[in-house]
Amino acid sequence: MSAPTKTYTNGEVTIVWKPKTCIHSGVCVRGLPEVFQPKAKPWIKIEAASTEALIAQVKQCPSGALSYFMNAEAAQEQQQNLPEVEVSPNGPLIFYGKLLLKDQQGEQIIDRQKTAFCRCGASKRKPFCDGSHREIGFQA
Ligand code: SF4
Ligand code: FES
Ligand 1: does its nearest atom lie under 6 Å from the Cβ of 66? Predict the structure, then answer.
């Protein structure tokens, strides 16, 4: 199990703090006392300094207990890792990338760039699309 972390964000940057890694050197408290207030709750008042000042201070944490990430970059990264599925007009459902398929026959890993699944019900190779949607004039 990974060590517990606490996060504090101003909407632009998120500061991550790992309590177990903190060696209480006080570097952060001395550098930005308006932000790092060990006796307060929450102890990081993130709104009290600019994003640039916060990042500069976090980088000086000697133990690595403090780190940060930019919210926009994290959101973009998350989006890039999402599975991509496309509903092709009047045609199949197209899955992009590697996937694990579970059906009555069991499980199989499909490692193709694109896999087309039948959406019209007419395929003779279900669950895959075999082009039959064109023959039946499937519209959806
Ligand atoms: S600078 Fe890092 S190690 Fe030092 S008190 Fe702050 S969080 Fe803890
Ligand atoms: S969607 Fe292509 S055969 Fe059904």
Answer: yes
CA atoms of 32 and 55, how far apart (whole Å) = 11
Residues with Cβ within 8 Å of residue 12, at least 6 apart in sequence: 51, 70, 71, 72
Residue 90 CA to residue 79 CA, distance in Å, equals 27
> Can you tell me which atom of ligand 1 is nearest the CA of 26?
5
Q: Is the pTM value of this prediction over 0.90?
A: no
Q: Is the CB of 23 under 6 A from ligand 1?
A: yes
pLDDT tens readout for residues 14-70? 999 999 999 999 999 999 999 999 999 999 999 999 999 999 999 999 999 999 999
What the chain holds in terms of domains, given with CATH numbers, is 6-77 (3.30.70.20), 83-131 (no CATH)
- The tens digit of pLDDT for each residue in 80-123 reads 888 899 999 999 999 999 999 998 889 999 999 999 999 999 99
Which of 37, 44, 63 is the pocket-test mutation for ligand 1 (most atoms within 8 Å of CB)? 63
Ligand 1 contact via 72 beta carbon (within 6 Å):
no
**Number of residues that make up the chain:** 140
- Please indicate whether residue 5, judged by its CB atom, sits closer than 6 Å to ligand 1: no
